[in-house]
Amino acid sequence: MYLQVVSLPQKKKDVTYPARKGRQKCYSPHLGILPLTMFILVFFGYGFLSQRSQELGHQGTVPSVPVRELDVREVVALSRMVYAQPKVLTPSRTDVLVLTPWLAPIIWEGTFNIDILNEQFRLQNTTIGLTVFAIKKYVVFLKLFLETAEQHFMVGHKVIYYVFTDRPAEVPQVPLGAGRKLVVLTVRNYSRWQDVSMHRMEMISDFSERRFLQEVDYLVCADVDMKFQDHVGVEILSALFGTLHPGFYRSSREAFTYERRPKSQAYIPHNEGDFYYMGAFFGGSVLEVHRLTKACHQAMVEDKANGIEAIWHDERHLNKYLLYHKPTKVLSPEYMWDQKLLGWPSVMKKLRYVAVPKNHQAIRNR
Question: Which of 121, 142, 273, 332 meets the CB 3.0–4.6 Å disulfide criterion with 234?
Fold first, then answer.
C-alpha cells in the first residue's frame, strides 16, 4: 500500500493582520483541519503496513513474486532472518587461508552461511548456467554428472545446463527439478583431445556473446568426467572465480606447472604467481567469463601461429589470465578433488566436486 499526498487547489488565502491590543486573533478554519486529517491518514496507513509486514515476516517461505512488485517494507520483512551474530574477533577458520592479499574470499566449509546467501540470490531472481562438454566418448559421463548436479548443484535456484556435444542423440534423459532445464548445443569434434580442450574456450566465448548473456546471470564451466558429491551452491558465485588445483594448494609458486617458455602467451616467470588454478571448474558473471574465454582463445590462436602449444593447454592460459585479472572469489580444493589419488585429508571438511575413476586412454581420441 502506498500513501500518496495530493495537493488540492487552494482558495484565495484569508488575509490576517497582526493582533492589536484588545482585539482577538483571527485564523482560517482550514489551517486546523488539514493537519488533523493528514495525521489520521498517516497513522492508519502506517498501522496497516506494519501489520502486513509482521504477517509476512512470520511466514516460513518467500513468495514467488518478483522483488520489483513488492513494497519496500515487504522486501525487508521477507529478507529478515534469525542467525548467530558474526564475531569480528573470532575468525571462521584458523587452519586455512580464507582471504587473498587482494581481499577475495577463499571458500571453505565453515566460512559462509548458505541460508543468508540463498536468501540474497533468490531476492535477485538469479539464474545460473552450467556449461559442460561431452565430446566423443566423454558423453558416457554425462548421466552421472547431471544426476548428481540435480542432487547437489544450486539446489533451489534456477539452472540451465548447457551441454556441448557432437553426439546429441546420446544425451541421456535425466529428470530435472522445477526451474531447471537442459539445452543441447551441437558442436564439432576434433581429432585430438587437446584440441577439444582448447576449443572449449572458443565455444564458451562465442555462445556467451550470442546466447548466454540473454539467458543467465552467472556461468559455471565444468568438466564432465566428474560428479557432485556434496553441496555446491551460490557461495561460489562472484564476478570471477577460480578453483585451487588439488595437487598444488600446498605448494610454492616455484613448483607450479605454469608455462615457463617465454615464447608462449601463457608464460609466467618463476618469481610470479598467486595460486595454481584448475581448468576443470571456473566461472563468474557471463560478461567476465566471456572476457576470460575470449582472451584465452586469442592467446592460443597466437601461440599456434608461432608454432607453440602450452603443455597443459587451456589450463595454462587460464592461469595466466587469472594472475593478471584477479578473481573476486577463490574456491578451495573442496570444489575440485580426486579422492583416489589424494585421499581425504582433515583440512577438507567436505569433498564437493570429485573426479570419477576412469581409463583416460580408453576414452581420449575415440
Answer: 121
Q: Are 215 and 160 in contact (CB under 8 A)?
A: yes
Spatial contact of 238 and 327, defined as CB atoms under 8 Å apart: yes
Model pLDDT, residue 188: 82
In the chain, what percentage of residues exceed pLDDT 70?
74
Indicate if the pLDDT at residue 66 is higher than 50. Answer: no
Q: What is the pLDDT of residues 269-302, one digit of tens each?
A: 999 999 999 999 999 999 999 999 999 999 999 9
- 154-168 b/e with 16+ CB inside 10 Å = b? bbebbbbbbbbbbbe
Question: How many residues in total does the chain contain?
Answer: 366
Q: What is the pLDDT of residue 21?
A: 42
CA angle 280, 283, 288 (to 5 degrees): 135
**For range 133-151, the mean pLDDT:** 96
Give burial (CB, 10 Å; 0-12/13-18/19+) of 252: exposed
pLDDT-based confidence at residue 81 (cuts at 50, 70, 90) = confident
306 Cβ contact list (under 8 Å, min separation 6): 263
Respond yes or no: is residue 55 known to be catalytic.
Answer: no
Residue 264: count of CB within 10 angstroms of its CB = 22
DSSP H helical ranges for the chain: 30-57, 72-79, 114-123, 142-152, 193-207, 213-215, 286-305, 314-324, 339-342, 360-363
8 Å CB contact between 313 and 198: yes
Catalytic residue among 150, 202, 235, 315: 315
